[in-house]
Structure formats: C-alpha cells, structure tokens
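Incident log, support desk, overnight shift.

02:14 A customer reports that sequence design results differ from what the structure should imply. Their input is reproduced verbatim below. On-call engineer (initials T.W.) acknowledged and began investigating.
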C-alpha cells in the first residue's frame, strides 16, 4: 500500500527541497497568524512552484473567512485545502463548492469516543487528519508535538481515509506503523530544531526512519 507523507509548516526553500528529495507526497503551508509556521499566501505561492508535479501543495487554515481563503487560493493555487479549526460539515461542503478543491478535515483526538466526530463528515470531507488535542490554554490547534494513543485508530470504520498527525518523529514512527498502520502521516514539529524552524537534516532523518520502519513491517 502506498504511504502518503506530508511535511507540514514549510517556510523555506531548503526545507521544501529536503521534503521533496525525501519523497513527500504532500507539502503543507500554514495560514494561521498565531502559528510560528505562518507564511504569507504570496510566499507560499512562490515556494509551492517547486512542488508542482512532485507533491500536492496543501493550504492549512483555521476557521478562515471566505475572503482569506479567496486570497490563499488565488495567490498559492493549492492542490488541497486542510481545515484545522472547528469547521462544521456544512462549512466543509461550502468550501469544497466554492473552490472545487479536495478538503482534508482535521479532527482532534484524545480518546476512542472522539472518533465519533468523523461520521457527520463522511461523504463530505475527502480525507481526515487525526491530530492530538492541544494542551489546555494552547492557541495552536496543531503542531504542539503531542501524540495520542494510536491504538484507538483500530476502531475506525474500514474505508476512512486519513493522515496521522501529532507528535510524530524519527524516534516513534515505527510505533505508529505498528500500532495504527496509517495510510498517511503528517509531521511538523518532529522535524524542527525550534518552533517553526524546519531542519533539513531532521527531515532527511525522518524519511530514513520511515523507510526503516516500513522495511521492518514488511520483513
């Protein structure tokens, strides 16, 4: 089974180049002003040119207005939109209809009961991203470097397409495959030397760890 790998929160040419060289299927750009990974739409549009024909460029937003989404879509020309806020199924449907782009809906997870939030989005969201619930008081809905108990994903209905996010890094990706065997993975803070600072060497290390973990699973 093909594995999708998304490197999210990219801001520099070097980090993007490392993600593409490693074989990322998706590259993500954050449009949430409070995030240390925030990038301006025009700059994301410049960066994403290197990914054309190599990886899908994902615009990550949090409860964004139509006006802001219009600006992002015009200047970045993303392949996919990721809605990482409290967007309702109705809002996801509106965004899909407005832009004609696939939408990935992020849902925070900490216990098995949280997976029940998937159901209203089935047939509306094109894919899901399961991220750890942010710590109390955090202003960031993701990128907090926290993981949840991946074993609960075994309770998902077959056919739910998702990416696993939250606290992934080179040291624990093997556990993620063993416990959840996700169809896609998303890493951000796990390849950073400081919040918002992607480290090409850590991106390379992450891809090596993914390769080793998959080889072990196949053995």
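02:41 Re-run completed on a clean worker. Output:
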């Amino acid at each position: 089974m093909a594995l999708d790998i998304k490197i999210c929160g990219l801001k520099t040419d070097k980090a993007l180049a490392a993600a593409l060289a490693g074989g990322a299927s998706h590259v993500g750009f954050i449009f949430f002003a409070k995030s240390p990974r925030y990038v301006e739409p025009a700059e994301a549009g410049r960066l994403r040119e290197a990914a054309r024909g190599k990886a899908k460029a994902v615009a990550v937003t949090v409860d964004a207005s139509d006006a802001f989404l219009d600006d992002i879509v015009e200047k970045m020309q993303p392949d996919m939109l990721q809605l990482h806020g409290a967007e309702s199924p109705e809002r996801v449907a509106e965004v899909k209809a407005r832009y004609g782009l696939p939408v990935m809906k992020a849902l925070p997870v900490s216990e098995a009961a949280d997976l029940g939030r998937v159901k209203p989005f089935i047939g509306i969201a094109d894919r899901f991203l399961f991220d750890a619930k942010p710590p109390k008081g955090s202003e960031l809905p993701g990128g907090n470097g926290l993981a949840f108990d991946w074993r609960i994903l075994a309770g998902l209905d077959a056919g739910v397409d998702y990416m696993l996010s939250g606290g992934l890094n080179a040291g624990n990706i093997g556990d993620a495959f063993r416990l959840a065997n996700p169809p896609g993975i998303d890493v951000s803070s796990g390849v950073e030397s400081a919040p918002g600072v992607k480290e090409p060497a850590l991106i390379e290390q992450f891809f090596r760890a993914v390769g080793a973990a998959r080889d072990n699973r196949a053995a």
